[in-house]
Amino acid sequence: MPKLRWGIIGTGRIAYTFARALGESQTGLLVAVASRELPSADAFGAEFGLAPQHCHPSYGALLSDSGVQAVYVSVLHPAHAEWTIKACDAGKHVLCEKPMGVNQWEVMAMIDAATRNDVFLMEAYMYRCHPQTERLLKMVRGGVIGAVKVVRATFSYNWPKDEQSREGRVYNNSLGGGSILDIGGYTMSMARLIAGAATGTYVAEPIDIKAVGQIGDTNVDEYTVASVRFPDGILAQLFSGVATNGDNAVQIFGTLGAITVPHPWRPDTVDDVHITLKLNDQPAQTIPIVIPVRNIYTVEADHVALHLSDRQSLRMSWSDSLNQARALDQWRDQIGLVYDSDSPTSPNAYLTLTKRPLTVDPAHRMRYAQLPHLAKPVSLLIMGCDHQRSYGHASLLFDAFFSQGGTAFDTAYFFSLGLPERYLGDWMRNRGNRDRCVVIAKGAHTPDCDPESMTRQLLETLARLQTDHVDAYLLHRDNPVYPVSAFVEVLNQHVTAGRIRGPIGVSNWSIARYEEANAWARDHGLRGFDALSNYYGLARMVTPLWPGTVGSTDRESTEWLERTQTPMLAWSSQARGFFVPGRARLAEVAEGDLLRAFCAEDNFTRLDRPI
């Protein structure tokens, strides 16, 4: 069987380690290397016998090398996402060194690239592929120590902190330094693995994470401890550090005894690989581990080759990597660790994740409509700016949406304390594309649903968005205490002032009240409402999702919309995922929005209808 032909991006210490491992592999062969500087690539190639033409002076050149089938991404943490995505786009299979991304949003984009290009992708937690880990999981699943209650996992080292090391990756914030991303991920991934084995799944996800840490003068975590709660009452204590030593071990405590793994991360560095089992009131037992292949990175490389056709591996699946990144994000949040790259004003904030210019894919399938008083095309899909948790999250979503022809962005003063509006403003500034975006803003949400509050909120929205106008503006709620004239007049004032340069409208208003407002506007020579934004989704809304919301899916409302040709800027058009397989059935027995708003016989009849 032909060997898998590997190329390595990067020439750091871990790249040399992996290259040596490939020399012992039965399935893989190193054929190319890339560095940012040709002498470094040549020196690497000379050590491993590579032909000069396969020692590349740039990472992109390696991706163009037709002799390379799989790529090991070994560059610094902040570059993992860029070069993994580019490798996937080049049709290469990818083993990405841990952590897969600096945050969960990068991992999300990397998985999307692997899916889109139909290539293998795995995060390189090499211990997951080792026989010792398999034996450990078998013991836990078999109930050898009874019900697992506590997991303790540690990984640390004491890296010198001198002037030179401050510029290196360990202590450098801009390079993704600190202990959590470097080695804390091992402890979290092991705890998730053990908790999964103890609860009948492959991995389990944290219910809660609490942590403390020491952030040094270079703004990275030098050491930190996390306490994690998993399902079934399992607790984990995790310790990682780059400025202090530890025992680098894993212990699992259960109702019948305890398991100790003295060398969980690099068992290939010791001659006596074993697990210690101590049952209650019995002497400790030493369980030797038989290792057919000594080098742990060789085991990892061979594992990749065996699972290429699966496109992902159970040892570290895509969902596993995404949830791992989410857990590390929570750990970082707990101790207040923020990377420079998280900021919308960082030096590279104007760049996309892949450093490519933001362009619209000519093969996109987006469709468009025109709204009254607005020349810009409005994409029929509208990006909701309401749930983005960080600028990094927002910029990735907005980039993807824009690249697929998306032009319209829906914001509201009320959403998430204004953060999504700030993210959208930062993104448009960094991408320089404000004139190509349709910004639909909303204000005057209950309890501040009055003309004066609307004006105040619009001005603040413009400041958040870093623009002098919005392309459309909607009142977020109705307040019958005020006559329709009050709202029509204030909206017209802002149209005249140039702050609203497109349609004006309302959200969650009755059709009767909408018509009353437009009749008053006609009688007084003012612009009336141009658009309505009510619930108009795939399922009938039985009761309002939130207080004050209005649905228009009934036949009478639909006929009115068709007759008047009033644009409907529908919210929750997919009924909050009611028709996602399994989601609605779960809602029958669970409290929440779906149960309250959509669980009705006619909706379930539609759900059960064959497509």
Automatic annotation (TrEMBL):
Ranges for domain Gfo/Idh/MocA-like oxidoreductase N-terminal come to 4-124
Carries keyword Iron-sulfur?
Answer: no
Known Gene3D superfamilies for this protein?
Dihydrodipicolinate Reductase, domain 2, NAD(P)-binding Rossmann-like Domain, NADP-dependent oxidoreductase domain
Keyword Transferase found: no
**Start and end of every NADP-dependent oxidoreductase domain?**
397-539
Q: Which reaction does it catalyse?
A: D-xylose + NADP(+) = D-xylono-1,5-lactone + NADPH + H(+)
Where does the GFO/IDH/MocA-like oxidoreductase domain lie? 135-259
The record ties this protein, via PANTHER family, to: OXIDOREDUCTASES (PTHR22604), TRANS-1,2-DIHYDROBENZENE-1,2-DIOL DEHYDROGENASE (PTHR22604:SF105)
Q: What is this protein called?
A: D-xylose 1-dehydrogenase (NADP(+), D-xylono-1,5-lactone-forming)
**What is the phylogenetic placement of the source species in the record?**
Eukaryota, Fungi, Fungi incertae sedis, Mucoromycota, Mucoromycotina
